[in-house]
Every structure is written in structure tokens, then in C-alpha cells.
Write a structure and sequence with these properties.
By secondary structure, the chain is of the alpha/beta class. The chain folds into two domains: about 70 residues, 2,3-Dihydroxybiphenyl 1,2-Dioxygenase, domain 1, CATH 3.10.180; about 80 residues, 2,3-Dihydroxybiphenyl 1,2-Dioxygenase, domain 1 (Roll), CATH 3.10.180.10. It contains five helices and eight strands; from the N terminus they run βαββββαβββααα. α3 crosses α4 and α4 runs antiparallel to α5. The longest helix has 13 residues. The relative contact order is 0.14.
Length: about 160
């Protein structure tokens, strides 16, 4: 067993395994790698309940901790998934929102477990990195969107 030097730990109420399985089925280079059960009772559960789920999302190691309802997800943490085109953007956006999630703005959405996602086409990242008028035009059009419209970002880049 190799333990990564750095792992993202995400607090769930009780559904870390379901969330990890959804992520593994939705995103490439993703998998559930371990499910650990509590060896004894704990404040929000019993011995034998799933307490820790190890998984990867697009190759990034994560831990889902079933810690109970004490802490809720916020936009202070999000996964950012870089997409190559509108089809890939639609695929991931629709998977998250269509599985009990919610739309937000500027490419952000939230899954049914409250975890926040940025589904961000590379063309938007490149436009913002370009700086100057190109970045301003792309940024201004992005601010009007929920799911990112690749064609609109490309048009804004061209001016």
C-alpha cells in the first residue's frame, strides 16, 4: 500500500462511498481504491459503518470522510475540471447537475452531496491567461453564463 504524501480530504455527512463511486464512474482516471469501516462506534455512527473512502478524481488522490452533519460543503473548496470542447463540458456539467446537483454561475455547479465543481473549458483558461483585452472580453461574457458556452468564449476572444 502506497500512501500519497498529500491527499485531499472531503467531509461528507454519510455518503462518501456513493459520492466516490459517482466520481469514479463520471471522470476519467478516477477510481474508488479503498473503503474502510469504523472499528468501533463513533459520535455519528456505529462500528462497521463506512467511515473513510479513498478515491481518485482525474488522478488526484482524495479521501471521503463520513464525519456526520457538523460541517457542510462550501464554494471555498471546488474541483476544477478542464474540458477540451463543448461536448466534454456538457458531459460533465450534465452528469453533475442531472444527478441531483444544482447549477451555479461562471461554470460552477454543485453535486448532490454539496461538493462544488468548476467545469471549465481550456479555451476560457487560455483566454484569461492571455491578459489584456482578450481576457477582459472572455471574462465579461463568462460572467453572464451558468454552464460555459465554448463558442461564445471563442467569439469573445476574437473580439
Amino acid at each position: 500500500m502506497t500512501i500519497p504524501k498529500n491527499t485531499i480530504c472531503i467531509w461528507f455527512d454519510k455518503d462518501a462511498q456513493a459520492a466516490a463511486e459517482f466520481y469514479a464512474a463520471t471522470f476519467p482516471d478516477s477510481a474508488v481504491t479503498s473503503v474502510q469501516k469504523a472499528p468501533s462506534d463513533f459520535p455519528d455512527g456505529k462500528a462497521g459503518d463506512v467511515i473513510v473512502v479513498e478515491f481518485t478524481v482525474c488522478g488526484i488522490p482524495c479521501i471521503g470522510l463520513n464525519g456526520g452533519p457538523a460541517f457542510k460543503q462550501t464554494e471555498a473548496f471546488s474541483f476544477q475540471i478542464a474540458t477540451d470542447d463543448q461536448a466534454e463540458t456538457d458531459k460533465y456539467w450534465n452528469a453533475i447537475v442531472g444527478n441531483g446537483g444544482a447549477e451555479s454561475q461562471c461554470g460552477w455547479c454543485k453535486d448532490k452531496w454539496g461538493v462544488n465543481w468548476q467545469i471549465t473549458p481550456r479555451v476560457l483558461i487560455e483566454a484569461l491567461a492571455a491578459g489584456g483585452d482578450e481576457a477582459k472580453r472572455a471574462f465579461d461574457v463568462m460572467m453572464t453564463m451558468g454552464k460555459i458556452d465554448v463558442a461564445a468564449i471563442e467569439a469573445a476572444r476574437r473580439g
